Structure formats: structure tokens, C-alpha cells
Description:
Domain Raptor N-terminal CASPase-like: 60-213
InterPro entries: ARM-like, ARM-type_fold, HEAT, Raptor, Raptor_N, WD40/YVTN_repeat-like_dom_sf, WD40_repeat_dom_sf, WD40_rpt
Organism: Daphnia pulex
Protein name: Raptor N-terminal CASPase-like domain-containing protein
Shape: elongated
Largest sheet: 6 strands, mixed
Strand content: 15-25%
Keywords: Repeat, WD repeat
Amino acid sequence: MSGELSVFQRARSRSPSPDEQGQDEEDEDWAIGLAFSSERHTDKIEGLEDCAQNWRLKDRMKTVSVALILCLNVGVDPPDVVKTQPCARLECWIDPLSMSPQKALEAIGINLQKQYERWQPRARYKQTLDPTADEIKKVTSTLRRNAKDERVLFHYNGHGVPKPTANGEIWVFNRSYTQYIPLSIYDLQTWMWSPSIYVFDCSNAGMIVDAFQQFADQHQREYEQLMAQSRNTLPSQMTPPPNFKQCIQLAACATNQILPMNSELPADIFTACLTTPIKIALRWFVLQNTSRLVPRMTLESVDKIPGQLNDRRTMLGELNWIFTAITDTIAWNSLPRDVFQRLFRQDLLVASLFRNFLLAERILKSYDCTPVSWPKLPPTSQHPMWSAWDLALDICLSQLPGILEGKETFQNSPFFEEQLTAFQVWLSHGSQKRSPPEQLPIVLQVLLSQVHRLRALELLGRFLDLGPWAVNLALSVGIFPYVLKLLQSSARELRPLLLFIWTKILAVDVTCQADLVRDGGHKYFLSVLQDNSVPDDQRTLAAFVISRVVWNHPIGQEAVSQVAFISNALEMVYEKDKLLRQWIVIGIGLAWHNAIAARWSAIRDSAHEKLFPLLRDSVPEVRAATAYALGTFIHSGGKTERNELANKIDHAVALQLVNVVNSEASPLVRKEIVGALQWIVLIFESTFIQMAVQQIEEEKNKDSNSLSPNVEVTLTSSGSLQRPTRRSRASTSNAMNLGTSPELSDSGFTHSTNSGHPDHIRRAVSISSLSSLTSSTLPSLAFNTIYVKLWHGLSSMEKDPYLEVSTMAKKLTDYVRNKIVEEGESSKELKDPLVVTGFVEWCARHFAEPAASNEDFQINMKPNHEKELTIEFEICGRTRERDTEMYYTREWRYTRNASVRHEAKEECQRPNKAKMKEVFCNRNPLVPSVIRFHPYDPWLAVADKEGCTVWDWERSVRLVHFNNQQQPRAARITSMDFVNGHDDALLLIGADDGSCRIWRDFIRTGSRSANAVVEDHTGVSLVSAWNCIAEMAPSTRCSGLVLDWNQDSLQLLATGDVRLIRIWDVERELKVSDFPTGSENCVTSVHHNPRDRSLFVAACGDGSVRLFDQRCSAAKSRVMTWREHAAWVIDCEWISVEGGANLVSGSLAGDIKFMDPRNPNSVLTVATAPNSQGMTAMAVHPKANLFACGIVGQYITVHDQEGEVRSTIAYHDGGGLLGSKIAAVSCLTFHPHRLPADFL
């Protein structure tokens, strides 16, 4: 059966120009709230993808032993080197010719050790001065044996011996110092083994690095041959494989290069750069004569720079601090991340040597000498940051004359302040698409300074707020230990910044929880959470951090339990801030998850009872968090060591969860309820199996007359009996032995004395076996037992209109049903969860996302509460962020809406008796049951018994068609409306099974083709769904589900084939209240008063019209009743009059009644259907005081508020149906603004 669709429109007058519209009309839309637009409706409920990078070094180590090999042979030059005169002579800043050769050698060795101790004071040092090969073997072997798996450093100074050979040999001495003895790098590798680091300070040092890699390959080949020959050797007896490729080498120059001999430089310039970088950097800077502020600085004055290297308040200490920041920055911006981590974060001594190696490269390259390293580093001598170093040196040295003369005091360098400013500039334009900020390592160094720490933390927080990629970048540069140490600070001005930074870190990388607990940092956040004087947004961050501390972390759970976290948190679950409540509850749920001791401690505090009221909290996320916490509470009890108290508590929790389902409109909460109830099913598995068996027995008894003894009975997903199928007689011999689990003894069940093993249940599904389950063998379950209620609750949730909820519930019930046909023992240990939701992970993901764009989470980053993250204008809960596509789209849409309303207003005020014109006519495949205009776009939604179709009535194009339900037998659609019609509209559809669904993306921009019919419905997605009235059953003769949507109050009135009217608060997604209709018939129409939100009217199938007032109690809410219709009332709506609103109603008999809410009798009666034809449909225009009636005789009449006929529509105007009579009128509607358009 098909149906016709027609749109009739009155001839339109001139449209007003935009200049005639006022700004107030545009702002009207900004003031209207939005429904179903929260992140829980638009996001996929899942956690952050595993984006945490491996910034931690699994093989973190330290250099514990250092071998200092000095082959100087003071006073004797090597035979292959011709030195210039004058020549560089200083070794470790000592002139060897200023004392006897032996004393000079000893002094140089002592000085070299001191220089290394500056970087690694706890290492074991061994000096070998002018050694033999045997002495080197002894020293290196001993150091390796003592170091075990830690790193050993081998420093070789070969200034007094020949250059290394092409065969990979360095030179040492014989015992009498009469010959140079070659020492193979191959042998040295064998003694040093790995891990090791080598420093070669000699000419032609690059040749050693090349030979080192060749010998490393040779060792690897020999090891593989050895392993092939000893396959039968036990693993414990095998030598560990060599790993010489991972050994580090630093060489003073490349192959065929000679060290510089400038007399103004030390002879061991490479060693000087590695161990005394500031001293050599100052000398080289002065020698370059590049100083602009003090052009006549001397080397002698440089040696007089005051201060200590480890005191950042002095000139020398600040230079060392700046040097560390600059070299770290150069390395971080030049090296791959893994190389940077290995060389600059794995070992403190290695990091120091490589930072200083960058300086060595810069200085030595100026003398045509190229230092070599393994692993190889890219050239960095021309990096722009060296210019910043030169400027810092220049500024410091410019103060030196005045300081030495006592005329000036030292002024700190502006270096760090300028770098922070550069970082701030990057932040103002930074994003993931741009290259990372090169100043990030400098920010790390600035955290050490109290002067710049506050600003550095603020900028760091803004950087972390850019997203997970920024957090990973900051962790890779080494920010973690610094912010961990700052938790020891008691400075209140740092608190909001540290809270924000730690929130970002833990939101991306939860593994930091272990470090936090190990250092006691969790106490910092616990103190903030318990301090009521702290702003709620900061306490929310503290609650989140604590929840991450206990997130699947038993050590963290134990740490917080020692300070009675759960007891203290229970006193804060009713805080005003919704996000704070949410994360306190989540933290509680995580704190007792899988922690039996914490559960019993919470029971002593009646924790579960204190959480029950939160199941009716005004915020769906808080309710979901509560359901999650109660689920982990049940789970923590487990199946072992059950007792009567534990069972009763878990039963009470489960009943509370089931009882709130019918009042819950949020799928987010219902999913968490199912997730929580799964643990009841798993813990009391045997009991629920008996429930399913008894259900089979009851249905078998009902259908016993229609089933033969040899018919197989199976359970369907809904718990009912499936269509019988024949099976062999052999199967009828199976028997079912039902046992009981220990937890059932306190549940009031009577068990068979002939049952088998209590944990072993053999199950069969034949009729003969079911017939054998007499009252003596089948447990007798009282009708009102808790398990019956829980089972019925789960069974009803199988039919939940939201697919994810019904799927989860079906998994639980199917699990029980499948156990009936399986054989096995019921495990005493809880299994893995049957269903998971990802709710907590989704909540945590919000903290990893930029806070500037998150409406629910904002924090004042600056101590003076001046927020610079974004400029926003908050209007009615909707963020107006300028310079965004969303803002301009919304602004255009609201301007368009104002124009439509202004035009309609002008049209209503202008007298016009123009004839109706048909502007759209099409044939629907099925008879339309409900039709609705979009208030502003040219869209028409048409519902029939199979689904919903959306048309573009201006272009006569069908845009999309989709089914309202996934079930084979879809419920009949009886109500429909557009939600958020002034914005990005959603489609509200109600069906006669009591379900309500909200759809989005039913109109896709790319599918609006002018020449084609669009059949693609893949873009349509379900936003939300719930059972408005769960008590309603599908029917074809009654009114079904009747809905009325109020955009202003965000409330939904729901009624129909029931004796009540239910009010839903869509913003909170909760049932507000139920109002009894007082009628034994169904409700056919319900509408709120557009001028007074507290009043609503309902029309009934018995002809009565009833007025209700929400401000009264449910029993006294019906304030007026009119019983003037003798037939079914088709519709009753409000019509605007001067000073208020009256009612107009129409019945199937064709009589129209006008009623004043203040008068118990109607004020006007109009007969619209002559000759007793009757009326089939009715609609009232909300703005123009017109109403239309569909008459049985296949025509439409349009009336004004006095009842006079303004127009009659009986025939089509054009097209292929020119002159033909319109079809029978099944439904009518007016456009909410335009005048007038009627549908049939």
C-alpha cells in the first residue's frame, strides 16, 4: 500500500532584506540550549590509542670504572711526529717541562682523574702511566670483572708514542722503555668486553675507530663459529655473545689527521674539551677575537673568572649552566630520538662527554681537525645555537673587568629569559605539523632556576596541552625527573601548574605511576584533593592523578590505602563540581578494584550505600562512574571466601543497579550497569543457570500439549523456546544432574539431596531430561527472589533500543544459556570479563586532549587566573570560539534562521487570501504515519511502518531512507520531531514499543544531488536511544508512543498506550516524574504550553482533554478536564491568543473545540465534517493561528481561530496527477514558521 506526499504553499510576498532583521533575532538561537551534543554523544567511547612512546631506557646504566692510560714519555718526542716550535705542551693544563718527567707524569695523571671526577665522582679510577701491554691487560680485566654488566671507560692519551697503525694497533712501552710495543684493538676489546666507552686522544685516531668496527665483526663471526661447534653445551656454560657494535668511541681526529700544535692551545685539546669544556671554550673564544663588547680580553683575565662550576649564581656556574642547555639543545635538535636517548640520557658520564664532544667538534674544526665518534653524529659545528653561546660568553666577559676591579656586581645573563620568550612565540603558532620547538631542552634546564621556574612551568604546561605528541616529546627530552622532584616544593604558586603538568603526563603515559609512588609524590596530590580551600578545578586534577596512581597498580592501591583514601574520598562524593565528583568516584572504584582488603575496609565505611544516591546524579558521567565503581566493588569480592554478609551486600548493590535502568536515558550509564552486573552473573553463575533451566521448565509446561516427547527444546536469545525440531530417540536418554554451588546456601533455595558433585553440572536440553526435573530435583525459586529480579532485568536489557547495550546484555544471558548445554565444572575463580565498555579510559582520554578545546575541562594556567589558552564566549553552555569553522558555520546558520523567522512573522501579519499552491508531490512506498518539517531547511521527514525517509521538498529529491530498528520486525513509528532544529538537527523517533531513538547524519552534504535519488544510508548513526515507557507493548490499534519535544526546556513528554505521562530531562538524561492521566484510555496527543513550561495538555481516546501542571504533586497535577468530545481526540494543541494561549482540539467525529485553560467549558465549537463524514487528521500552525483538518471525503480544510474556512484542498494542481483528487488524508502537519504548508 502506497501513499501520496503533497506540500501546499500560499503565494509568498516580498522577502525582507537582511538589513530589516534585528540582532536580537539572531541572538535568540544562541540562547537556546542544545540536546545530545555532549562528548558522550559525539565521541566513540574508547580510550586513547597507545600513543605513549618508549622514552624510558630499558638498559639504563652508569660508568662505574675508568681506566686512564697515559703514554706520554715526557721529554721524548715520538719518531713519526715533527713538532713545530713553539708547540703545544700543556697536558691536563700542566706544563710537563716545568718539573721532572716522572713528577710531571704523575701530576698529569692526578689532574686527569680530577677532571673526570668532576663528571663522575663515584667511579673507580685506575691510572696507568706509560704502561706496558701486560699492565693494560691487568687493569682493564680487573675493571671489567668488578664492573660486571656496567660500563667501563678506557681513556688513551698517545701523545708520546707513534700514531696508530693501519692494522688497528695503538702503541705502548716495553718494561725498560726502550721500545714501542703495538697493542691490538682486538685484544683490547677482549679485555674490556662490553659495554664500554673509549676515548682516543692521539693523532690519526680515526683509524682506531675504523679498525674497532672490523674487529667487532671478527669477534661476532668467531662467536658464531664457536656456538656452532658447541651445540650440546648447556646455556649456563656458554659465553655471552659479544656486543662491541654498541660500544662507544670518541676519537680526537679523523684518519690521517694530526692534532693542532698551536702553542696557545693545550696539547691534549681534545681531552680538555671533553673534561674542562668551559675553560677551553673561554680560551678559544678569546683567541678568535670575535668579542665585540670587550675586544681586548686576555687569556690571563679569563683564568680569573670568579665562581664555581656547580654554583649557578656565579659567573662561572651560570656559563656552565648555559653551556649544558645549549649543547643539550643542539643534540636534541640534530640527533634521532633513539640516539639522543642512548647518548644523552642513558649514562650521566656519557651524556657529559658527548655534550662536550660537540664543543670539541666546533673548536677542532677551526684548526682543520675533525673529531670522530661511534655512533656517528651529524655535523653540528655550524648550529645556530652556537651563536647564542657566543653572545652569552660576550655578555659575561663584558662584566669581567668591572667585577675584577670591584666596581660592579655580577648580573645574570638574559639567555634563559630570551629563550623562554622564543619558546612562547613558538607556542603562539605551534602545532604537531610544525617542527618541534628547539628550546624544549632549555625549558628543562630553566626548571632548575627559581627565578624563571614559574614562567617555565607555565610554558611547559601550554606545550603539553597541545596533545599527546607534545607530552611524548617532553618526556623524550627528559622532563620527567625534573617535574617529579618539583613535587617536593611547598610553593603554592607552583601547585596549579604542577597539577596540570602531571595530569597531562599521566593521561598519556600511566606507567609514570610507579615512579610517582616510589618517590612518595602521590601524597602531594592527596593533600591537594583533601584541601577544601583549593579551587575545584585543581582538586579535579588531583583526583585524576590519584585515579591514575591506582589504575591497575597494586602498589599504588596499597600506598593510598595507608592514608585512608577511600574513607576520605567518600566524604567528597557530593561535591558541587561535576567533574570532581566523577573522578573521585572513579578513583574509589579503581582503588578497591581487585583489592579485597580495600573492599572490606570500604564496607566498614558503608561505601556502597554512600554511592547509591549518585546513581541518580544529574550528570550522566557521574552516574556511569558510580555504576563502574559499584561493578569493581562486586568484582573485588570474587568467588572465593564468600559469606552471607558478602552475598547480601552484593545483592543489594545489584538490585540498586537494576532498579535505576527504567529511569535512565543515557546509554553510557546503562552500559556501565550491564558491565557491573556481569560480575553478579559470574559470581553466582550456578544460580543463574538454574534460573534459565526453570524458565525452560515453565515454558515447557505451558506448551506441553503441543510438544511431542521426541522434540528438542532450545533456548533463544530472548529466553523463549525455539521452534521444535525432531531428534533421535537416543538423545532422549540424557539426564540432567543439577548441583549447587556453595554460595547458594544462603539464598533461600531448596536443593535435591541426590545432586552430584556441587561444582559439577551436567546439562542436557532434551524434553525427557527436562521432564525428569521434578520438584524434588529442581530448585524451588520464589517468584520475588533477588535472582528472578536480576534475571528479568538482564532479559529486558536484551531488548534495549541502543544496540551496544542490548548486545552486552545478550552476551551475559547467552553465557548463562550456553552453560545449560555444556558440561564442566564451575570455576571458583572469576574469569575474564564477558563485556568491557572503555568508559574510564574514555574519561581519561579527555585529559590528554587539549584543554583549550574541551568544554568540560578548563584550568587557569596562570596563578593570577589570567587564562591565555583561548578566547571564548560562553553562551548557554555553548562555546563560541572565534576564528573557527564551527563558529562561522553556526553564525551563518543562526543568521539564516533569523531571516526565516522574520519573514514568517511578516507573512503572519500581512493579510493574504492567495490560493494554495502545490509545490511538492510524490508517492511514498508505504502509507505515511508521521510527517515533520525541518523548521529552517527544506527537509521533510516521513515515517511509515518500515522506517523513515527524508525528502528535499523544494527539489523533490529523496535524500535518505533508513530503518528505525535493527530487528526483523520493527516497531511502528508513532512520533517524530526534529531536535536542535535551529542548529545541527537530530531526528527524534518514537515507536509503539515505548522506545525512543535519536539519529544524526541523516542528511549528508555530499549526498544532496539535484539529479539523483540518494539511497545510501550508511552515514546515518544512532546518537542515543532508551525506553521512554518500558511498560508499553507494541500494538496496531492504539496510539503507540506519543512524544512532545520542548527545545527551550530540553524536556520530553512521553505517553501513549499507558495510564501515565512521563517527563524526561534530556539534558540530564533522567526521568523527572510520572503524572497519572486519570483515564482508562490511551493518550492520543500531548503538548506543552509554549508560553508556560509548567503546563501541558493531553488528549485521550475517550474524548477527554486534560490539563496538567508540573508544579503540583503527581496526585494533584491534573488541574482541568474537558469531556466534550464523544469520540477519539485526534489532536489537541495550543494556539496563541493575545495575552496567553488557548487550546484547540479535534476528534474523529469532526468537531473542533476551542478551550480557555481558565474555563471548565469550551468557548467555541466548529463542525468541520459535514454529512457525518468524520475527520482523519488535524494540525495546528504554531504561529499563524490556523488549523487544518483532513476529512474522510478526501479533502483538507484550513480554518482560522474563529473556525472560518480559509482554504479547501481537494485536487492536485499539476504534474501527472493534474486535476485528480487527493488521496485519503492519513496525517497533517504545518511548517513551524512558513505559511502555510500542509502534508497528507
